[in-house]
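Journal club side-thread
Mid-discussion, someone asked how the predicted structure for our own chain would compare to the paper's figures. Pasting it here so we can look after the session.
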Amino acid sequence: MTTSKITQTSISDSLADAAEDHALVSVPEHDRQSGWRLALSPVSVATALVIFAMAGFTVVLAGFSIGLFVGLLIAVLAFTLSKALGNMAFATGVSSTITSRFFGFGLRGSSIGSIIFAFMILGFLAIESALLYEGTLLMLDLDDTWTTRIVIYGLLTLLWISLAIFGLKIALNASGFMTIITLLVTVYLIVQIYVIQGANPMEVLTYDGVVPGGFVPKFEAAFGVMGATAGTIALVTTDFARYARSRKDVTILSLAGPIVQNLLMVVLGALVMIGGMPAVIDYILARNAGMSPGEAAEAGSTFIMENTGAFFVIFAGWIGFITIYASQAKAQAINAYSGSLSLVNLIDALTGWKPGRASMVVAGNIIALLMIAGGILGHFTQYLAYLGTMTFTMCGIMIADYYFVRRAKYTRATHKIENWNWAGLLTMALSSAVGFILMATGVWALGFLASLALSLIIYPVLRRMLPEGTWTKFASEEQALEEAA
């Protein structure tokens, strides 16, 4: 009986530890892992349904050659941000939003970064569930009723919670398995299009895009679609870099997401989306009597972004249905996982209450459901660049603090943490505002890049004008982590 009780207690403690997953404390050395294994996390996000759509849509807009060139540039940018932030998380051993306590924002100020990142990552959680729902309706020929919504979204939410609630190990295991399935069925789709159906791949490789004009308008259109995600993939990478064993592992981890998302997915997305477009055009013509083929082609390009799950089902039936579920299960596990880390820091930073990470997984999924109810599928992509402005600014502030102000010098014993880093918060407001204005007024569609550049310039200046301790109190790193322990 005693042995049984001890065993049950040990299992219970192990499950509790797995659920918490060092959410508010530094990851110990014995839990560190290789960069190759950790790379499954950003790769899972990079091969999600919405990324598939964005990558394919990039080529639809700008053409294959410009789309791939833009993908290369964004991959370099995303790797640079991921590596810079990853080294910081490796040093502190904590997630991206907890790391922002130490560099750029302060203990309480890190709540701002948590709100930004949580809204972005939970937005992806919501929109990808919505895309999956649309594909499920079409595949199973279901009506969009409240009963259908409750059942399907309820089951999807329970799945995302179960994959994310027990921490890194389950999330990575699910990611590895589902990534293999996603890539295999994608290859099958490409064979089906270009070998069995006889489509000409050169039509994709020489595709010129629907955006009129020369290089500049096509470049801006392509960068506007994919570029804003660079900050998000960098922050997701940072959440997992805390588990890295060495800086070499951080490099491997930092390369994985940007390469897959911005190069591999542009190629695969273009081959599948453009190659499968005739089937979608036929589907649209069949459902819209009197529509011309040209109008159907134009509607089809929009259909890729707004109904990606249905796109795969229309083109490939059950194989497409398997594709969307395999691509989503792994990505949603990581989205829910990273979202929970942000929410944990948000609650702790603002109130001092230490919520369990498992409860924040549930809370994050509830927030995603509310976003879906608010119609995020029709609006999220429109505001992606604006959200990207804030994630880019957040990344820039943290990098400027660590590398420019502190010269990459960090020691646990001497590091101090402010409650509010006003230099960082003011930089966030100024840099983000400039990016918003540039995009909203149509002056520059890539205003989020201006926000990144400004944050790197403005923060060191404001930090000199508002040195540590200005208008706030200090807490040592040990105190901050003890408060969070």
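Post-session note: The chain has one domain: 33-484.
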